[in-house]
Amino acid sequence: MNNVNIKRLAAELNLSISTVSRALQNSSEIGEKTKVRVRALAKKLNYQPNHYAAGLRKKQSHTIAVVVPEVADNFFSLVIDGIDQVAQTKGYQVLIFLTRDDYAKEVNFIRHLQSGRVDGVLISVSSESRDNNHLHELNQKNIPVVFFDRVFEDIPTAKITTDDYKASYKATKQLISKGCKKIACLAIPENLLISRKRVQGYMDALEDSGLQIDLNLVVHCDNHDEENHKIIHNLIEKYRPDGIFSSVEKLALHTYQSCIDLKIDIPNELKIISFSSLKIAPLLQPPLSTITQPAFEMGKAAAEILFKALQEGKSDLTDDHIEMESEIVLRDSSI
Amino acid sequence: MNNVNIKRLAAELNLSISTVSRALQNSSEIGEKTKVRVRALAKKLNYQPNHYAAGLRKKQSHTIAVVVPEVADNFFSLVIDGIDQVAQTKGYQVLIFLTRDDYAKEVNFIRHLQSGRVDGVLISVSSESRDNNHLHELNQKNIPVVFFDRVFEDIPTAKITTDDYKASYKATKQLISKGCKKIACLAIPENLLISRKRVQGYMDALEDSGLQIDLNLVVHCDNHDEENHKIIHNLIEKYRPDGIFSSVEKLALHTYQSCIDLKIDIPNELKIISFSSLKIAPLLQPPLSTITQPAFEMGKAAAEILFKALQEGKSDLTDDHIEMESEIVLRDSSI
Q1: Is the CB of residue B209 less than 8 Å away from at least one CB of chain A?
Q2: DSSP-assigned letters across all residues of B227-285
């Protein structure tokens, strides 16, 4: 056993534990002279970082970060509610950061977090995320990460998602059972796993029902409201689908607006069902049929996994994948 | 002129500037021995903190905090969008913190911020806020604060609000002009200035039109959804108002739900107008008349004032009060 820990380094150097810890992490907050002294002694005494020390350092922040694409979407605001509820019982602060589906923002922020200002991270990755080095780096800094909804499959940590494929399949089948023959799919960017799963569910439901897949009817939207509105308006105007499967809430709302503009009657001329956690879905004209993810429960589950890890001083979480079930709530928009 | 600055203290003590700075702020991250050494030298050389030094320290975080009661309300999510847009051009990170109208949470978080993890704070205070020492302390730590929407009047700093009294007066007059004689008011807690202003506008409009004020028709709601729903349901069931002036979005949506439950027709049996930034107000059944605050612009304006102060190294902001105009958008719910 090697008994050299940060505490001993700090005592020998007459520095605080946190200064030594930050010096070892090459923090920009520590002067070069101090870093050189700390590194020299660490090397001399063959210091090895350990989880317990990492735990000690982390006890100082009592803060976790929640990284989400947006909060205007009711799914994310409900997940945050769930996280918040658990964090409150643990005496933790929750900081929220919005990536706005901007990969560069996500990377910047995650790098920013590495300086130890949070003990753990709960993240739903941005649409444009391509490379996940920034998330690997968090792991290396002993900051545990839990993914929810939008995950990177190849990072071995805890992940909470819903049954995206199955729910999409069932929702599309529902539209088909009501007589729709020309169903469009409003998707989010393809580089997101949940996007691919939802589109796949839609396509398989069409195929299994003997309907042809028309790629003109599958549109990918991103984070630009105006652009999305145009895409959906054009889709409806040009191809006149009789059904729409929408993979996120905001695209369903653009559909409602476009139908008003184009004087298309929902559900008589076009039926729609959408992933959505919109509490006021029943108040819309007509009430919107939804695929409702258990957003609040997902937030709670994700937070509980994270806090368990923090309590145990673990930063490497087991590569567990929890899949929760969404509920399909049929209302007038798809009758 | 006294030429002793943090840099000189750091050089003489062979410590980093940031360690000296934190030691002087009595940060828990710095060991006692170091603090004693730093304080002793600071006293000996008669060190006086100055704004420039504060500026130096602050350059490290490049982060601002936005403190809001909630994000599920569209007003706050739009304000955050406005703040975010400005922050992005300045290369700053935006951290969001939700108080959920919980005074203790607000105080805890603000105290947490004092350790220098943010350069500035934009805040809409929690409903239950009573004493503002925690905000005064931020000022003392040279962290500038800008208020928006929900302000503390007696803290001398920049404040952005809207014309709450005038807009409420006009909206209530609108209901009266459509024949309403028994108008209820859905208010938020009285300890918020905007709440009192909105209720006053409602009351003055009634009085000026020769209508009697019935305090049974004025209800104060808080942050508990279920409780709010009950209050509104009972109000409508028991007193059968023919008009409702709602001072926040969520209370209008509870009214819609209650009217469905009670089989009351909007607008024929009850007309309603509400403060709201709900983009989908036109998609509701019936479309909701709104008092729409320039939420995005308020966020931008608040952020611009804060960044100007940060750029100039100022932490004491002028006690400027900017009042922006809300727009009344009439739709079918009040015809």
Answers
A1: no
A2: HHHHHHHHHHHHH--SEEEESSHHHHHHHHHHHHHTT--TTTT-EEEEE---TTGGGBS
This complex has an ipTM of 0.78
* pLDDT 10s digits, A238-247: 999 999 999 9
Q: Of the candidates A88, A117, A285, which has its C-beta nearest B117's C-beta?
A: A117
pLDDT tens, residue by residue, B148-191: 999 988 788 999 999 999 999 999 999 999 999 999 999 999 98
A77 touches chain B (CB under 8 A): yes
Domain range annotation of chain A: 6-49, 61-162+295-325, 164-293+328-334
3-state secondary structure at position B291: strand
Averaged pLDDT for residues A156-161: 93
| Neighboring chain A residues of B88 at a CB cutoff of 8 Å | 105
Is A164-293+328-334 the same fold as A61-162+295-325?
yes
Q: Do B283 and A72 touch (CB under 8 A)?
A: no
CB contact under 8 A, A284 and B280: yes
pLDDT in tens, B200-220: 999 999 999 999 999 999 999
Do residue A60 and residue B33 have CB atoms under 8 angstroms apart?
A: no
Average pLDDT over residues A141-149: 92
**Cβ contact A97–B96 (<8 Å):** yes
For A295, the token pair is 């957003």
The answer, yes or no, to whether residue B53 has pLDDT greater than 80, is no
Residue A58: pLDDT band by 50, 70, 90 thresholds?
A: very low
Interatomic CA distance for residues B9 and B35, integer angstroms: 12
* Mean predicted lDDT score pLDDT of chain B: 90
Q: State whether A112 and B71 contact (CB < 8 Å).
A: no
Query: What separation, in Å, do the N-terminal and C-terminal C-alpha atoms of chain B show?
Result: 69
**What average pLDDT is seen over chain A?**
90
**Chain B neighbours among A 239-298 (CB < 8 Å)?**
253, 256-257, 260, 279-280, 282-287
| Contact at CB, A19 and B28, closer than 8 angstroms | no
The CATH classification number of A164-293+328-334 equals: 3.40.50.2300
Q: Which of B151, B239, B229, B156 is nearest to B197 (CA)?
A: B151
> How close is the nearest chain A Cα to the Cα of B213, in Å?
31
Q: Are B222 and B129 in contact (CB under 8 A)?
A: no
Please answer whether residues B76 and B69 qualify as being in contact, where contact means their C-beta atoms are separated by less than 8 angstroms.
yes
| A61-162+295-325 topology per CATH | Rossmann fold (3.40.50)
Stretch 34-53 of chain A: residues touching chain B, C-beta under 8 Å: 34
Nearest Cβ partner for B31 among A15, A60, A112: A15
- pTM metric for this prediction: 0.80
Instruction: Mark out the alpha helices in chain A (DSSP H runs).
Output: 6-13, 17-24, 32-44, 51-58, 74-90, 103-113, 133-140, 164-177, 193-208, 225-239, 249-261, 295-311
CATH fold group of domain B61-161+295-327: Rossmann fold (3.40.50)
**Which residue in the set A31, A34, A253 is minimally distant from B280, CB to CB?**
A253
Does the beta-carbon distance from B97 to A97 stay under 8 Å?
A: no
Distance from CA of B304 to the nearest CA of A (A): 19
Give the integer Cα–Cα distance in Å for A52 and A45. 18
